[in-house]
Structure formats: structure tokens, C-alpha cells
Amino acid sequence: MSSTRQNKIERLLQRDLGDIFQKGTSTLFKGKMITVTAVRISPDLSVARIYLSLFPVDDKKEFIDYINSVEGQIRFDLGKRVRHQLRKIPELSFFVDDSLDYIDNIDKLLK
User: Fold this and answer.
1) How far is it, in rounded angstroms, from Cα 71 to Cα 106?
2) At 40, phi and psi to the nearest 5?
3) I need a labelling partner for 70 at 20 to 30 A (CA). Which of 2, 31, 51, 107 fits?
4) Are 10 and 71 contacting, i.e. CB atoms less than 8 angstroms apart?
5) Is the CA virtual torsion 89, 48, 10, 70 positive or negative?
């Protein structure tokens, strides 16, 4: 169960990471549209799991590997934004949010 502090930090990270992905789309992320759908942070606030929705990406696994390889740059940009709110910037790990694919599959099966 998440505490109030965890929920506030999750919302803060989601907002700022979304802005980083939106502004860095043309250079760092090869023109792909990336949406931060969820952020889950550990109780000790040291590790954040970020779930991303990717469009238009053919090989999502390969693109997530690329995003994980530039995690240092993303974490640095995030640190510049939240340095007054957080004492320590959490480690970031990125995952594909496949809930939209799951919903599409259910819709296809129901039709």
C-alpha cells in the first residue's frame, strides 16, 4: 500500500518525465511519441518503475532497451527539475505499458 508521500512523488515524477519525453522527442528519442502512463516508486524512494506507452514503434523491446541505455541523461534532466523537491533522485527503470494492446485484443475478441 502506497503512502501519501509515495503518491505525491509518483505524480511529480510522472509529470516531469512526461515533459522531458515531450521536449526530447526530436533529438534523444528519434521522433517517437512517448507517454508516461504510470510511475511506481519503492517505499524507500530509491527506485522508480516507469511504464511507458510508445507510438509509433515497431520493436518496443528494442526501444525500451535504448531508453534504458540513456537512463543517465534522463535522470540528470529529471534531477535538474526536481532538485528542490527531492533529496535523492531515484534510480529509473523503464517498462512497456501494454494495457492498450490488451484492451485492443479484448475488443477484437468480443466482436
Assistant:
1) 33
2) -125, 125
3) 2
4) no
5) positive
Over residues 30-82, the pLDDT tens digits come to: 777 888 999 999 999 899 999 998 877 778 888 888 888 888 888 999 999 99
21: pLDDT strictly greater than 70: yes
CATH second-level architecture of 4-110? 2-Layer Sandwich (3.30)
Model pTM greater than 0.85?
no
User: Can you name the residues that pair with 50 across neighbouring β-strands?
Assistant: 39, 94
Domain locations in the chain as residue ranges:
4-110
